[in-house]
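Dear colleagues,

I hope this message finds you well. In preparation for our joint manuscript, I am sending the Sleeping Beauty transposase HTH domain-containing protein (Pleuronectes platessa) sequence together with its predicted structure, so that both groups work from identical material. I would be grateful if you could confirm receipt.
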Amino acid sequence: MHADVLFPKDFIIKTKELTKQVRDKVVEKYEAGLGYKKISRALNISLSTIKSIIRKWKEYGTTANLPRGGRPPKLKSRTRRK
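The corresponding structure tokens are as follows:
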């Protein structure tokens, strides 16, 4: 069976965000001198995710989730609950 039949190219599998503790552990290992591949194998996280976490840490100095762009909600959370 061909992979495109199961997962079309437009289909993106969403994953949950990593916790702040895990992202901090990535930076901790990086500061200790481990390379991307070793961190990736040790924590069982993809190499691209490791690179993204470290890039964000170098650029912004934090591993916290940054605000994302996008349209603001039409309804406030308080109005939505009623």
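For the figure legend, we might mention the following. The chain has a mean pLDDT of 84. The first helix runs from residue 3 to 6.

With kind regards,
E.M.
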